[in-house]
Input
Amino acid sequence: MKRYILHREAEAELVDAAVYYEQQRKGLGGEFRRAFAENPVLVFRDRQLGAADIAAFGRRFGVPRKHALVKYRHPDHEEVSWLTNVEEDGQIDWYGVKRATEWHTDSTYEARLPLLAMLHALELPSQKGGTMFADMCAAYDALPEGMKERLAVLTGLHGRTDGPAGERLYGDDKGATEKRYTEVAWPAVVAHPVTGRPILFVNPMHVHGFEGMTREEAWPLIEELAAHATQDRFTYYHSWRVGDLLIWDERATMHRGAGDYRPDERRIMLRTIVYPN
Output
């Protein structure tokens, strides 16, 4: 997967990605926006951020929004959520262990799509515990022409966790939300808002069908597309270090927790999902 890694020397030169993003919005330069559009996972090393910092940083790009799952919202900054496998009493939260370990794109079941997400590592297991990303522009480009023609006229039906991966991972244990999410329709292929490149916009967590297609027809197609998009040639495994901050493009990628660490070890992160102004 093509990606843009900000190493320490690059960080010293750029200072702060949000500054560059704001400059682009004011017509003063588009370095960050272009880099992000072409390389949808950005990595910043050696940061020390709290929930207030994550929320403030997110607001410089757009509007951070409360996470759907009430349980994992930060008590002081509800637009920031914990990605954790640890309960308040210190015991292992088994829902937190398995949470988000199937491929998905965040919040495609909402009527307005997010712009980006941020994830910051506070505590990590002794080994592994990575996060995986799939480049959905590259995945689309590599599809056979016949499949591209088929997808061009399909509209995906998105729900919160009722796609084949959502049912497989969570079953009836989907967590409590404040509101009931209804079905949202999105084209199976969308254009990247900056580059115009086509994105394969089908993820197996939230897409549970296609307009005019039975579930028996749709689910094998969803699974086929997910298997195609998550080949090694389209994916990036991020090996976390404490202090890492990742920013990723929410339209052009899928992601998942690798789920490859010892589940009795602590893994605690802060996250926010940012929507356009």
